[in-house]
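Practice problem: predict the structure.
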Amino acid sequence: MALKRRAARPTDIDIPMISIDKGDLPSPVIVPRSGHPVSRKLISENALKVLRRLNSQGYTAYLAGGAVRDILLGREPKDFDVVTNATPEEVKSIFRNAFLIGRRFRIAHIRFRAEIIEVSTFRALHEPETPDGDKAIQPVTEEDIKDSKRKPLEGRIHTEDGLILRDNVWGSPAEDALRRDFTVNTLFYNLRDFSIIDYAGGLEDLKKGKLRLIGDPEERYREDPVRMLRAVRFAAKLGFTIDGPSLVPIAQLKDHILSANSSRLYEELKKLWLSDEAEKGYQLMRTTGLFGVLFPETENWLDIEEGCYPHTFLGHAFQWIEDEMRSGREVSVPLLFAIILCGPIMAKAKSIQEAAGQKLPAIFPAVKEVVSGIQSRISIPRRDTEAIKGILYGEQRFPQIRGKRPFTWVKNPHFADAFRYFKMKNSLEGDGGELLAWWDKFLETAEPWSPPKRDYSRKSGRRRRPRKRTPAKKI
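Answer:
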């Protein structure tokens, strides 16, 4: 969806202090339509349909999170999320195209032809208490964690360390805003009166370019360690500065990132590095220590000096990814992880080669060994692992330019990514210029090669030897 016009910067927002009394919860700042640039023209038509339908059924529904934030920053939102006081089951009963997903966070996906609108229910900020003042939901044991699939969907479940395993306790709009991670993600857009609702000072932080965690940072990071990764991603994406109280605990709690779901880490890393701020995200990951925890093999390789110089390849490679993304040339996930892991993989391949006395580095067993060690931390799919093998195998295949080998290598399904990696690495290291020029010329001029086909229509000149017949036995 293309934006009709560019939104104003948040510094242009006029914020009149209109508050609503919510008891112990903070009073929100409500900005009327005349005081902000968010317009229905900038919002997906499908998201507007969802908001209108929920409002017409008597429910409260707001546009939430990143969409409101991005429009205020003059950016085009990638997706549109809706929050409401309707439960997931009620949302499903209203929309025939709604599908309920998730166990830790129960949400509804409303599917349209080319878009999915995510609808979640307002969640509570605090755990409910019993009349005696005790927590109604106690921390669970290891047996409870193993048995979590058989637990009821409603209710909050967390470990003794504070890691949330399930969070389906419904609450109010104010509670839902304050249970989010960063203040800039707490803004709501109300379609009824076209106002923006701010419960946590997100508008002020947008003006200052500050990324601030809501609540006690150490407690929030323990609840969900992926928030540390999200802090790095949003700081790189938005060009914001992580404020001190939110930044310091990351270095202290960085090892807790290993307790997060490996599939979530895989998805967050893709969002972080397959972007036009990849290099900044990489530098923040190293500064906070998160990179060394998630990729200790690469971190150790980076610490090794060659010729009294540290490795600088990876920083330049992330800058290449950033330039490619800004130019509209997508970078695949296998190519990303091949770049991150190429150092330790090639080092392992050479050690296997030397131990076995082989002529060439053992790429395939090296990839298997290094990636298998990472799988416990980051869930890299098998298809990506196979693609990484093909990409790094190009180190051996590209020098083989005689005979039919170039023709067969071009037909390899991983050739395109392998060639991009080959070109990128040669441009950074300044080697292999002649070989690269040969391949560029070959790809421009060479005719597709295929093995010669045998003509079975022509009879051979050789006579066929008659088959020996054994005489029938007499009865």
